[in-house]
Amino acid sequence: MKLKVVQLNFGYGGGSASAYIYGPEPTNVFDRRPHLAIHINFTLHRDRPDFESATQDLVTLPIDTATPFLCVGFLSDPPMHADRDLSWPHPSEYRDNLTQAIAKMVSVAIQTSDADYCA
């Protein structure tokens, strides 16, 4: 499974992201490569927030000066499939990988900034 974060917005204690899981390579240059689009939002918290485990994941960010929590919400779970003929992975197969990728990106953004991002 090839998971690629294609867009990330972050600032003021939260943000959003889009990721794709790509299907098989197209057979010719005129075909588009099928993909499954996954859209998420996330918020940063100083204290452990309540969260809905069916549609959200919670991860602790490894930052030296603080230990913030990142709450990641999957906006359409299960996502809508662009091509229903293909066999797409179940959300449980990619949710943790995507959550960890977003957590790493947000950690780097926080550590390279002087702003206080936590709500």
Could you describe the 3D structure shown?
This protein has 119 residues and is α+β, with helices and mostly antiparallel strands. The protein has one helix and five strands. The termini are far apart.
Oligomer: single chain
Task: Tell me the fraction of residues in β-strands, as a range.
Answer: 25-35%
Largest sheet: 5 strands, antiparallel
The stretches of 5 or more residues where confidence is low (pLDDT under 50) are: none
Give a count of the beta strands, DSSP E runs of length 2 or more.
5
Give the CA-CA distance, first to last residue: 34 Å
The structure class reads alpha+beta
Along the chain, the helix and strand elements come as EEEEEH
Spatial shape: elongated
Mean pLDDT: 84
Strands of the widest sheet, in order across it, are: 1-2-3-5-4
What share of the residues lie within helices?
10-25%
Number of helices: 1
Task: Please state the CA-atom Rg, rounded to the nearest Å.
Answer: 16 Å
Main attributes?
119 residues, alpha+beta, 5-stranded antiparallel β-sheet, 1 helix, 5 strands, 18% helix, elongated
